[in-house]
Design a protein that fits this description.
Helix content is 29%, strand content 19%. The protein is an alpha/beta fold. It folds into 2 domains: 210 residues, DHBP synthase, CATH 3.90.870.10; 99 residues, 3-Layer(aba) Sandwich (Rossmann fold). An 11-stranded mixed beta sheet has the order 1-8-2-3-7-4-6-5-9-10-11, sandwiched between helices. It has a 5-stranded parallel beta sheet with strand order 14-13-15-12-16, sandwiched between helices. Bound molecules: threonylcarbamoyladenylate (TXA) and magnesium ion (MG).
């Protein structure tokens, strides 16, 4: 792979122009969005798209989503868009929602991994919008982490994973949502949730029925056919072994005490840290899932920096964006859950 001196640049006009030129020339650029940082390239250029897979070390059977910056960009990329998709777009775009729709011939098979559908997202981050507009192209972009690592929520995280692999990262600050977009398969009269995110089940249910795919809360066997290929892969994982622990705070404390040893950490809600028998990190207030979403991936990266070997995590509430927090934690924990009495 080509070795770059990866530059992290502020999003001023000159740098947006430079990044847009790189995209037009078929290079890959680090792009801030409101969810996580993305590894972007021209969605029409198969060589550029191949560079995304190479930089990330991503399996070729996992499709990319395509980012647009206006509703006018949707029509050329898709066919037979259900009317429901326009209603969802009206309500939730620009924003953290990806719709899986039947693809047009303009989307190369390299982007859709051979599927007949394509994921489309219209991000709300002003820098993402300016970049897509300046390039004048739909931008294919997965999360900007090495495959299997937690998604980057700052330019620094992205540099850590992508240094020397890509020419440039535009620094748009810390991502406000902090977890990847909600992915939905849009049918005529309902949607199927493939990946929970910032546009929550409760929000979508104001518009239409929402079916939750099995893969959201359960592990998928290696050879099973899945609606979304990304579900197959262990994801978002720090090096440490992560365990979700269900039960009351006293039960959690007693359990962690029985497990204590070198490299054992606890991840708890705000205010619970000082009471723990092992070093503890906080992931926000118990009743504030938005804050937990914002902190989660940074926390998983911190666990690696601390050299954690085992991490025990208090189980979060699953309402609203809490479902997305829980879904990512499940994958970080490789579905390892301990249920305590009391
Ligand atoms: O928030 C986000 O969605 C970020 C930012 C950069 O926009 N992007 C992102 O991309 O998370 P990625 O590639 O890391 O995750 C996209 C997920 C994958 O699990 C993939 O398998 C699934 O969406 N996906 C993409 N196209 C699909 C399709 N046509 N059918 C089913 N699933 C699809
Ligand atoms: Mg990803």
């Amino acid at each position: 792979m080509e070795k770059w001196k990866t530059q992290v640049l502020p999003p001023d006009e000159e740098n947006i122009r430079l990044a847009a030129e790189l995209l037009q020339q078929g290079e890959v650029v680090g792009i801030p969005t409101e969810t996580v940082y993305g590894l972007g390239a021209n969605a029409f250029d198969v060589d550029a798209v191949a560079k995304i897979f190479a930089a990330k070390g991503r399996p070729g059977d996992n499709p990319l989503i395509v980012h647009i910056a206006s509703m006018d960009m949707l029509a050329p990329l898709t066919v037979d868009v259900p009317e429901l998709a326009y209603r969802l777009a009206e309500k939730f775009w620009p924003g953290p929602m990806t719709m899986i729709l039947p693809k047009s011939d303009r989307i190369p098979n390299e982007v859709s991994a051979g599927l007949s559908t394509v994921g489309i997202r219209f991000p709300s981050h002003p820098v993402a919008k300016r970049l897509i507009e300046a390039a004048g192209l739909p931008i294919a972009a997965p999360s900007g982490n090495l495959s299997g690592h937690p998604s980057p929520t700052t330019a620094g995280h992205m540099l850590h994973d992508m240094d020397t692999r890509i020419p440039m990262i535009i620094d748009g600050g810390a991502c406000t949502v902090g977890l990847e977009s909600t992915v939905i398969l849009v049918k005529e009269d309902r949607v199927r949730l493939l990946r929970p995110g910032g546009v929550t089940v409760e929000m979508m249910e104001e518009i239409c029925p929402v079916e939750i795919d099995d893969g959201v809360l359960h592990s998928v066997a290696e050879n099973e056919k899945v609606a979304s290929p990304g579900m197959k892969y262990r994801h978002y994982a720090p090096v440490a072994e992560v365990t979700i622990v269900e039960g009351s705070l006293p039960a959690f404390r007693a359990f962690v005490d029985s497990q204590k040893g070198e490299g054992v950490y606890a991840v708890v809600f705000n205010g619970e840290e000082s009471d723990m028998p092992v070093p503890a990190l906080s992931f926000g207030m118990e009743d504030q899932p938005e804050a937990q979403a914002h902190l989660l991936f940074d926390l998983l990266r911190q666990c690696d920096e601390l050299g954690a070997k085992k991490v025990f995590v208090r189980s979060p509430d699953r309402h609203g964006i809490g479902l997305a927090v829980y879904n990512r934690l499940l994958r970080a924990a490789a579905f390892h859950i301990v249920k305590l009495e009391g």
